[in-house]
Structures are given as C-alpha cells and as structure tokens.
C-alpha cells in the first residue's frame, strides 16, 4: 500500500474554521455543537477499553432475522403490527449482548454471552468458538424453563419446535454495526462532530481507538458465509454478498468509517493515542505495531479506505444507485492519492454494473449511463417507489459534492448534468393535498400522510440552480417558516441562503401544489387547491401509469383520491418484508389489490410507462386519459379516462371510464379507506367458506407456484366474501371512512364518506376484505368491491362516478343517458359513455366521452357532441358551463354551446434538441396551418414507436412561419438513452424522430348563462 495522505481532504481546514466561527456566531450552530458533545460524552463514559473490545470480528455472524412469537403474549403478526419489522430492543451501553421482547418483557439470550465471548478471544483478540468456555452456555435468567432455554452461543438457539432464534446475530447487526441504535457508526459520528466543532482531543481519542480496531478486523469481514437460509438475513439484494453487513447497506456504514478517518487525521498525531494503540498491538500480536502517527494512519487507510474499491468490485459493498458510488467517491477524495483517486473517479463514471458470469462482480460505477439510460426525463430512477427513488438523490448528491470538489469544471461535475438536476424535481410534484405523497409501490403505509424530501436537499438545490420552486419547497419543508433555514455549518456564510429564500417567498409566495403531469415517470395529479388553503376545500385525484417493476407494484392505471384531509383510497404501501414472501408477491404487489382492472385472472406484465393521449389540469374539468398497451399483451385496448369535475368550492367528483378489449374475464377492483360499507342496488349473498378465489380455496391458500414466479390472480387474499351474481345496471357502494391516521384531530371522521356508483352491465359484483401489510398503524383490513365481466373476445367499459363527501351527499342522482351515433356511423357501447349527474345545488352536468372524436353523436336527445370529452351544465333552464377537449361540437341544435372547425392541431416533427441540455425544443410543421395559436401550458402528444411515450408540456411557443413553430419544453430531455453505453461517442436513442406525427388537443370552456 502507498503512504498515508498528508492532510484532511474532505473536512478541510477551511471548512473546520467556518464551522467553529459559525458556532461562536449563531445559536443554531451552538445547538448542533452541544448535541454532538452531549452524545459523545455518553459514549465516552464507558472508556476506550470498552470501545476497543466492543468491535466484534467476522467469526461472529451478523443477521436481522428474529422470529416474533417467542415468549410473547401476542402472535407474530400482532408483534409486527405493533412494534415493526425490527421491534426487538437493546442498548449496547447499558445492557451489552442483550435483547428485550417489548411485548412480553423477556430478555434474550438467557445466558451470560458477554463472559462466553470474552472466554473465546484468541491471542489476537479474535473470538474463536472452540476456545470459549461452555459453562457460560446456561440459562441464568429463567431457570424454570430449563438450562438450555433461550441460550445463544453466537450462532443462534433452536427451540423445541425446531425454530432458530438468532438473538446475538440480531444484536450484533442492529446494536453494534448498523442501525439507528448501532454503537459503532453512532459513536464515530458523535466523536467526529464533537471533535470538528470543538477541536478537543478528548473527543477524537476514543473515536480513533474505535476506528482503529474496526480497521484491524474490517479487511477479513465477509458476511456471505452466514446464509439467509440459516436465519442470517442481511440486506444483500439476494446476492448473499457483504462485509460487516449485507452489501446493500454496507456503503452507508463504510462511508461513516472513511469520514471519521478524515476528520481524525490531524488528531492522530497525539502521542497518547499511539501509546494506547501500540500497547494493544503488542499485547494482541497485531501486524501493524502502531508506534507512530504514521502507523496509526496507515492502519485506517489500509484497513478501511483502500478496502472500498476491491470490495465494491467483488460485490461486497454494492447498494442501490448512488450508494457504493458515494462510498467510493468519499474514499477517493479522502485518500488523496493522485493515481488511485483518479482511477476510482473514472470507475465511478464508467459504464458497468453487477454481472454474475463467470463470477459475481461489479464492472463499473455506471453513473453517466444510469443517468441517461435509467433515470427518466422527470428525474425518477427505476425503483417506481417514490421513497426508493429518493435514495438516488440522497446518495448521488454526495457523489456530486465530492466530484465537484475534485474538479468543478470537468464533465464529472454532476451538477452540470440535466438528469442529475431533475432528481430534485422528483419530490414536490408528487404531493397531493399538501400532506400526501401517493404510496406508489413499496412506499409508506396504507393511507398515512407522507412528505418526501428534506429541507437540506432543497436548500442545496436552490444554491446550485436558483430556481424559485426549490426555495419554496425548502420553506414548505421547514413548516412554511423562514426561521430555521440556513446553510451548512461548514459554509462561509450559512445565513446568506436564509436571506435569499426569504426574498423568494416575498416575491413568489409560498409553495403551491397544483395539478401535475409527469409523463416520463407516469404520474398525474388533478388537484383543487383554493387560496384560503382550508383543508376541507382541498382535494385531489391521482393516477399512476409508470414502471411496475422492482419496488413498484403491478398497478398500471391505478388511481387514488384525497379529500377532507384524508387518503380515501389508500394503497397498500410497504410490505411486511421486501423479499419473495407469498403475501408480498401474491397480494401486496399484485394487480387485484389496487384500483385498476385485472384481465384473465392474472397479474399485469412488466411495463415502463403508459401512453397518455389527453391531459388538462387547469380547467373546471380536470382530465387524464392514458393507454397501457403492454401490461396485458392479449388485449387490444387497456385504457383509462378519468375526469375530476368541480361541483363547488368544496366538492369535486370523478367520472372514471376504464376500457378493456380482449381476454375472457375482466375484474374491476376498487377499495376505499378503512371503514364499513353499505350498498344500494345490490343483493349480496354471503359466501360461507373460502375466498374470492372460490369457496374451496382458503385465505392465503396453496397456489401451486413459488411466490417468486407467481403470475396468478391473488384472489385467495380476498376473504369475507359477499356476492351478487346478477347486479343491476346501476349500483352504489358507500365507505364510511375511519380516520385511521388521526389527521382530522377531534373531528368526527365517520362523517367522511366515499361513494362509488357503477353504471352499465357487469356480470357479478362482490364485496370482500383485503389485508394491507400488517405493520404499525395500518388497518387490519380494507373493503374491496370487485365488478366482474366475462365472455369470449370480451369488450368492457367500466363506467363509474366516484364521490367524496362529508355528512351529506352533494349529488342528488346519477344515471346513464343515451348516446347515439349520427350520419350512419356505428360505435360499440364500450367506446362511448354519457352520464347525467344532478347536483343538490340545482346544477345538472352531462358528461360525455368517445374514443372516436370524428363521429358525431346525439346525447340524451338534447345536444350534439363530436370530440373526445365534453361536459355541459344546466341550471335554471339555461346552459351555464361547457367544456370540450379534442372536439369540434358540444351544442344544441340552435347553435348554443361550442362549435369550431378543428378539435386538435396536427402535424409532423421536423427537428429537435439532440444533445443533453437544460433547454430542449421541438421544431414542428402543422398540417395545413391553423387559426389556433399554440401557447404555453398546452400538451403535445407525439406518436412515436411506442417503447415509451412522447408527451410534453409546452413551456414556450414561437411561430416561425404560417405552418412552422418552435416549441420549448424546458429541461425535459428528448433522449431515451445511449446507443451504446460502452461507447458514448455512438450517440443517443431518442423518444421522437423527424416525421413523427403529433397532436395538440384544443381545450375550450365557457362559463355563464347561454340560454
């Protein structure tokens, strides 16, 4: 190995000087210092000898699995629901080597493992099971249960039923090496910060001792020898790889070690530290004598920093995108070796990844190709789950910070890459109702309020890009206050950002959460937010049509709705376990558990993103229309159109039109929040036994397939079934929504309802219970309504009205009305829809839709319609509102209403931005010209090859001639990926091409009496 570096390179002397000056100047900085000192003092109380001896060598296994039933007065499922997946409690400072079952109070292991461990240390201070004294393997805590009950020798205890309990492995993982209460990373961080903030050697010394001992044992660590099947369940992405812990979480752990080495670097000159460590080296016959500061530094450098690169390449340190790259970037800047550091940075940027042949290895950091190939144009990684996607920014911003520090002007500076910048745009656009991030995929819990993103992230984003929205979101995340916003304690002027953000809020106002459409990610919110911000007047509907793989669910075209402060249609959220557990893959991830349609009793196929055809988030009628052709290849149409229509300042209702062509049976699945349901128009008969899969199939019964490859219906997870095998053509299901998460305070949440009225023929309707993940806070069950249609070459149009209300309904009646094609045309019933909705206010809305916008129809024998979507409102004998999207006619015979020559602007793409850029344009040629201007806020839908969609919001429009325009689409790139990720010079693949056709639907609405 090379010689140790000459100075601290991450925690530079300049940064440290700023921090100490800020502590003297600002109260918030003093509080940070005081908190670090207080925590450091708590770890110092046990002394350096305790810290040195606490470091466990690799011959003691690490794991996270402990069964939940032992000695508990509750079942395993109840334990999981009340205390969480990792609910066992421990404290390495006060009760070393012990775990407590919080439900029963029992402590494990029941033997004196500390004495047993001490007796098994060899001449190098390494635990050897063969040396350990077996007299310490006796149950001392509960002798009445037998001498061997609950005894753990470090490798688990097998009870009388043959179950293995890994108490010490669990303790070793969660209370020593990794976790919120883990001694080593927590103590190192406390010592590091206390030393940086104060410069006092008393905080550095114990940190150096702890770090040095970790460096002694870290090179030989290999968690792969402890197998998942033996109950050592580390997080390793099913590769089995890891070092101190599983490879997924290892990058975060080693980052703490490297940061500590850099911080403690100058303090390693202290002769007392070297004397202590030299004594240990001599006593335990260590290869490094540690007689000098040089030797002490070399031990940490060789034992930790230089271990990172080979361990990453071997897959022992490898997490989600950004994790191991962050660890290696930190190692590169801290090592400060001209040759090695340069090699590591180049590797971080180079194309590569995890490969299995001829053996498992990682071939490159893959940062640049991942940004271009995997991160969509809206800034989301391939995780689908919003919370998993946050990891990509959480980790890669540290990579960006370090690479910028190394060379701010080079292409390795990620802040100069538009896809990296878009990471910051992947938080706030998802928020609905100001308090909720939809629980898409493995995200959150079933209906809990959830906001993603941190104040620090958006302070950083504003500092780098100066976009007002980042300042507004930082302000929002800070409780909509300026107080408490400041830069890093290591900044030269940390309160400059305070002044800057205050100016933004004064000029632009606080954060707003309007409707959003993220066509790259596949998400739409249709939101109503009044200026008074009263909670009961805010409401929003969302649809997800993006990736349904990885940490996503097979839920394409899933919808949700928020009103009255609550999530009224909560998704499942995060499963009990993120592995191949049957419940996860048969139910939580399956299509049936979401608000979408199941075809042929099977899970959806994998899909990147659907194809939107229409969107309007601004009008009184908010609209989204998306097709998903890839989720069920046997279908020729799988398309959902949802309108969210404002009834008054407090209420909106949704009209949901889901069309499916192909297959032999279609199941429309819909569920509300926790609460009882009542029905109108259904004659339900209770099914005495079994599940929705059948009376002979038990709840979570055997399925004949492994969970890993399961593509079935998941119907066996629906229980307490009631059916009507001949429902009427109009029926309603009403959920009395319970305030599961206590968001309405003392108000009676039972007054909040969600009502679904289904119109049209279905062959069966059923009500059943479905169980969300049983984790703390989640409901025990949710009520599902399943509407089924069956037949050969089946065509279905599921038409429903979704009505959130409080206390009393605002809708008087809902009915289908006739829609008849004119001029000799014929269209199938499934291709049109017309609904009459009478509001209690006296207003009557007619809502009409056709997927044949070139056909003219007569609606309810009252008015003519030609277009895609229309709404016309009557009150007091006159027409008070009209809305037409992608159409030419919505009017009475006397001409009252909307009539125009064109419903859309059509043409071809002639050119577009072909490089990675923050400013992207489309050059278009319009067919035959148009009298309609193209303007900011419209959407252009390009018909491309269908592999991904090409739908873009127009941010600017410049007319170049009578038929040609230049459309700006901002920082939304048109690049799909590299042609060859191993040779960037070969250029890109694009989402559009010259001569691709496009449409820009024209939207028109009017308000006011038109008699």
UniProtKB/TrEMBL annotation:
One Pfam family matching this protein: Hepar_II_III_C
Main subcellular location of this protein, as a coarse class: other
Span of domain Heparinase II/III-like C-terminal: 546-671
Molecular function, one GO term: lyase activity
Subcellular location(s) per record: Cell envelope
Gene3D superfamilies: 2.70.98.70, Chondroitin AC/alginate lyase
One cellular component term from this protein's GO annotations in UniProt: cell envelope
UniProt-recorded name of the protein: Heparinase II/III-like C-terminal domain-containing protein
Species of the source: Paenibacillus contaminans
């Amino acid at each position: 190995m090379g010689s140790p570096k000459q100075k601290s390179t991450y925690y530079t002397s300049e940064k440290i000087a700023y921090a100490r000056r800020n502590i003297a100047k600002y109260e918030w900085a003093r509080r940070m210092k005081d908190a670090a000192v207080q925590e450091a003092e708590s770890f110092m109380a046990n002394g350096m000898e305790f810290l040195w001896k606490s470091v466990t060598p690799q011959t003691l296994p690490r794991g996270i699995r402990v069964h939940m039933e032992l000695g508990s007065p509750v079942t395993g499922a109840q334990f999981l629901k009340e205390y969480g997946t990792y609910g066992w409690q421990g404290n390495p400072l006060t009760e070393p080597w012990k775990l407590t079952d919080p439900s029963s109070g029992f402590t494990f292991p029941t033997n004196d493992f500390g004495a047993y461990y001490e007796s098994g240390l060899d001449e190098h201070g390494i635990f050897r099971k063969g040396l350990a004294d077996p007299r310490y393997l006796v149950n001392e805590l509960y002798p009445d249960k037998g001498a061997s009950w609950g005894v753990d020798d470090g490798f688990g205890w097998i009870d009388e039923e043959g179950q293995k309990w890994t108490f010490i492995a669990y303790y070793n993982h969660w209370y020593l090496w990794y976790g919120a209460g883990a001694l080593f990373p927590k103590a190192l961080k406390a010592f590091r910060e206390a030393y940086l903030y104060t410069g006092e050697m008393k905080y550095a010394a114990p940190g150096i001792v702890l770090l040095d001992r970790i460096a002694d044992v870290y090179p030989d660590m290999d968690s792969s020898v402890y197998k998942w099947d033996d109950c050592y369940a580390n997080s390793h992405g099913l590769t089995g790889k890891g070092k101190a812990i599983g490879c997924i979480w290892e990058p975060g752990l080693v980052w703490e070690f490297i940061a500590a080495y850099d911080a403690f670097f100058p303090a390693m000159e202290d002769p007392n530290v070297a004397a202590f460590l030299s004594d240990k080296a001599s006593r335990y016959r260590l290869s490094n004598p540690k007689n000098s500061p040089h030797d002490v530094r070399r031990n940490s450098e060789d034992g930790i920093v230089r271990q990172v690169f080979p361990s990453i390449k071997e897959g022992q340190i490898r997490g989600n995108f950004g994790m191991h790259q962050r660890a290696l970037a930190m190692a590169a800047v801290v090592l400060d070796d001209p040759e090695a550091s340069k090699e590591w940075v180049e590797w971080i940027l180079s194309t590569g990844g995890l490969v299995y042949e001829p053996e498992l290895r990682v071939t490159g950091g893959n940062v640049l190709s991942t940004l271009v190939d995997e991160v969509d144009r809206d800034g989301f990684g391939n995780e689908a789950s919003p919370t998993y996607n946050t990891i990509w920014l959480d980790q890669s911003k540290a990579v960006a910070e370090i690479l910028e520090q190394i060379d701010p002007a080079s292409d390795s500076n990620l802040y100069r890459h538009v896809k990296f910048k878009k990471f910051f745009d992947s938080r706030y656009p998802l928020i609905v109702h100001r308090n909720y991030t939809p629980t898409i995929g493995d995200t959150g819990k079933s209906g809990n309020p959830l906001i993603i993103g941190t104040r620090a992230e958006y302070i950083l984003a504003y500092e780098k890009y100066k976009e007002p929205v980042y300042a507004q979101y930082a302000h929002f995340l800070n409780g909509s206050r300026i107080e408490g916003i400041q830069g890093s304690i290591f900044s030269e002027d940390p309160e400059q950002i305070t002044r800057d953000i205050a100016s933004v809020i004064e000029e632009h106002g606080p954060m707003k959460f309007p409707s959003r459409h993220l066509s790259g990610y596949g998400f739409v919110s249709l939101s109503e937010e009044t200026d008074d911000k009263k909670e009961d007047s805010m409401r929003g509907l969302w649809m997800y049509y993006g990736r349904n793989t990885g940490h996503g669910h097979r839920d394409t075209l899933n919808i949700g709705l928020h009103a009255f402060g609550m999530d009224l249609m909560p998704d499942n959220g995060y499963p009990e376990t993120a592995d191949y557990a049957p419940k996860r893959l048969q139910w939580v991830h399956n299509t049936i558990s979401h608000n979408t349609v199941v075809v042929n009793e099977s899970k959806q196929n994998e899909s990147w993103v659907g194809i939107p055809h229409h969107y309007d988030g601004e009008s009184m009628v908010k609209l989204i229309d998306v097709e998903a052709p890839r989720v069920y290849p046997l279908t020729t149409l799988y398309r959902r159109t949802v309108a969210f229509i404002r009834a008054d300042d407090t209420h909106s209702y949704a009209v949901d039109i889901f069309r499916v062509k192909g297959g032999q049976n279609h199941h429309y699945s819909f569920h509300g929040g926790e609460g009882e349901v009542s029905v109108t128009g259904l004659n339900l008969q209770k099914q005495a036994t079994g599940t929705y899969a059948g009376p002979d199939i038990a709840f979570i019964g055997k399925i004949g397939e492994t969970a890993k490859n399961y593509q079935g219906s998941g119907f066996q997870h629906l229980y307490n079934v009631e059916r009507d095998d001949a429902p009427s053509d109009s029926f309603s299901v009403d959920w009395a929504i319970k305030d599961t998460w206590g968001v309405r305070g003392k108000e009676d949440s039972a007054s909040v309802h969600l009502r679904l009225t289904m119109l049209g023929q279905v062959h069966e309707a059923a009500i059943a219970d479905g169980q969300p993940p049983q984790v703390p806070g989640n409901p025990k069950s949710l009520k599902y309504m399943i509407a089924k249609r069956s037949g050969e070459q089946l065509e279905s149009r599921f038409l429903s009205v979704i009505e959130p209300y409080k206390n009393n309904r605002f809708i008087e009646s809902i009915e289908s009305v006739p829609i008849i094609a004119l001029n000799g045309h014929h269209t199938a019933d499934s291709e049109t829809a017309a609904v009459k909705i009478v509001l209690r206010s006296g207003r009557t809305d007619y809502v009409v839709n056709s997927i044949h916008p070139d056909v003219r129809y007569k609606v309810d024998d009252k008015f003519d319609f030609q277009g895609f979507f229309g709404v016309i409102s009557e009150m007091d004998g006159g027409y008070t509102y009209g809305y037409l999207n992608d159409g030419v006619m919505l009017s009475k015979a006397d001409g009252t209403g909307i009539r125009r020559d064109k419903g859309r602007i059509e043409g071809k793409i002639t050119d577009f931005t072909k490089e990675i850029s923050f400013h992207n344009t489309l050059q278009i040629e319009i067919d035959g010209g148009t009298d309609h201007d193209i303007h900011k806020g419209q959407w252009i839908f390009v018909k491309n090859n269908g592999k991904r969609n090409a739908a873009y919001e127009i941010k600017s429009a410049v007319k170049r001639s009578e038929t040609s325009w230049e459309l700006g689409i901002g920082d939304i790139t048109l690049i799909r990926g590299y042609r060859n990720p191993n040779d960037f010079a070969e250029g890109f693949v694009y989402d559009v091409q010259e001569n691709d056709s496009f449409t820009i639907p024209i939207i028109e609405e009017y308000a006011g009496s038109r008699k």
